[in-house]
Design brief:
Layout: H1 8-19, H2 34-47, H3 49-53, H4 76-79, E1 96-98, E2 103-105, H5 107-116, H6 129-141, H7 168-178, H8 180-183, E3 190-191, E4 201-203, H9 221-231, H10 245-256, H11 291-296, H12 300-313
Antiparallel strand pairs: 1-2, 3-4
Helix pairs in contact: 2-6, 7-10, 9-10
The structure holds heme C (2 copies).
Residues 49, 69, 71, 73-75, 85, 90, 93, 110-111, 114-115, 118-119, 134, 154, 212, 216-218, 223, 321 line the site of one heme C (HEC).
Length: 322
């Protein structure tokens, strides 16, 4: 179990110890019955989203995603990799309060969040076989995970924040040296086949029309920097990062400085402005800092301003799910 309290250092040590026994149940060991087939369909929907609900599939009614990414491009190993945005504890974490919407949301709501932002698409109907299969897969992955406990390895990691602003100009040089060989000089990625064939990407695009939109979690500096540090280049694990921490912040800032689809209505996110993450790239903000510093940091002054405002308000913070 993770210690509920204690210093950040103690928590990190406890988390490392627990990660040593990280295991996910084996989908392929499930029998070939209705449940086993549904869970495996769910895994395939995560791993090859573009082939089932992408914008190029034959049936126009099934074109729910707006880009040809797969969920697994950001949920590494179809959601089985520590600090690769895993799904290990996800099923046990919902319903939960979500600061972004200011409401309690279900696991289906959370999937729709990635559909509308990371996949730049539209909502899947709750009763759609694709939604049921993805939730079944998440339930299977969460086998044995306790409800209401934090999951070790969740998210993308927690590097210390930089004390300076992230530097997109230096990030451009990091990109050219360490990323362009796979993701392409213009962030366009590499197709498995040809545009229009619904075969998706061998390497996903990082910006441009077929990428995640500006409301996605990957468009927040902290999420992206940690993800890159712990997962990129492809094959990297959190135990052996290949991109130095400052370079990860800078290259994330560079990727986020490039054009991508826009999601309307982002000003309505985080209705309680004091619960808005410091790296939310769009205002309005309650803390007096502008979009530029919220996008690039340094974040310490923003944390301090938010803490002071919260103390003035004398209102306890409603915690987000994680
Ligand atoms: C461009 C990257 C990206 C893609 C593609 C993506 N996601 Fe996500 N997803 C994220 C990030 C980053 C988070 C964590 C963000 C946060 O916690 O604010 C997340 C969080 C989630 C969560 C909540 C996890 C938890 O433990 O609370 C679920 C469920 C989820 N995604 C499902 C999906 C599904 C299903 C798809 C495909 C239809 C998908 N995602 C595609 C980046 C992505
Ligand atoms: C060896 C090839 C390779 C290199 C080098 C590489 N990547 Fe990736 N990257 C991938 C692949 C493949 C995926 C999709 C992972 C999957 O589907 O399992 C990915 C996924 C991503 C994602 C999440 C998906 C998305 O659409 O946003 C980001 C962000 C990312 N890479 C950034 C970087 C950055 C920044 C660098 C340089 C520091 C880098 N990558 C270097 C192959 C690579």
């Amino acid at each position: 179990m993770l210690a509920p309290a204690g210093s950040a250092g103690e928590r990190a040590i406890a988390e490392e110890a627990e990660l040593a026994s990280w295991a996910v149940p084996d989908v392929d060991k499930l029998p070939d019955d209705t449940w086993g087939r549904t869970v495996r369909l769910g895994r395939d929907l995560i791993a090859r989203t573009y082939a089932h609900i992408g914008p190029e599939v034959a049936d126009p009614a099934k074109r729910y995603a707006g880009n040809n990414l797969s969920c697994g491009n950001c949920h590494i190993g179809a959601g089985t990799q520590p600090f690769g945005n895993p799904f290990a504890g996800t099923f046990a974490a919902y319903p939960s309060y979500r600061a972004r919407s200011g409401a309690v949301g279900t696991i289906e709501d959370r999937i729709e969040g990635c559909m509308e932002r990371s996949m730049n698409g539209r909502k899947l109907p709750l009763e759609a076989p694709e939604m049921i299969a993805m939730v079944a897969y998440l339930k299977f992955l969460a086998t044995g995970r306790p409800v209401g406990e934090p999951t070790p390895g969740a998210g993308a990691g927690h590097m210390p924040e930089l004390t300076r602003a992230a530097d997109p100009a230096h990030g451009r040089a990091v990109y050219a040296a360490q990323c362009a060989i796979c993701h392409g000089p213009n962030g366009e990625g590499q197709r498995n086949g040809m545009a229009g064939d619904a075969k998706g990407y061998a390497v996903p695009p990082l910006w441009g029309a077929d990428s995640f939109n500006d409301g996605a979690g990957m468009n927040r500096l902290t999420d992206a920097a940690n993800f890159i540090h712990n997962n990129m280049p492809m094959g990297t694990t959190w135990q052996h990062p290949m991109v130095a921490a400052p370079d990860a912040w800078d290259v994330a800032a560079f990727v986020q400085s490039q054009p991508r689809p826009h999601k309307a209505g982002l000003e309505r996110d985080y209705p309680d402005r004091l619960d808005k993450p410091v790296d939310a790239p769009f205002g309005p903000y309650a803390d007096g800092f502008g979009e530029q510093q919220h996008r690039l940091g340094p974040f310490a002054p923003i944390h301090a301003a938010i803490a002071a405002l919260r103390a003035q308000r004398k209102q306890p913070r409603v915690q987000d799910a994680k």
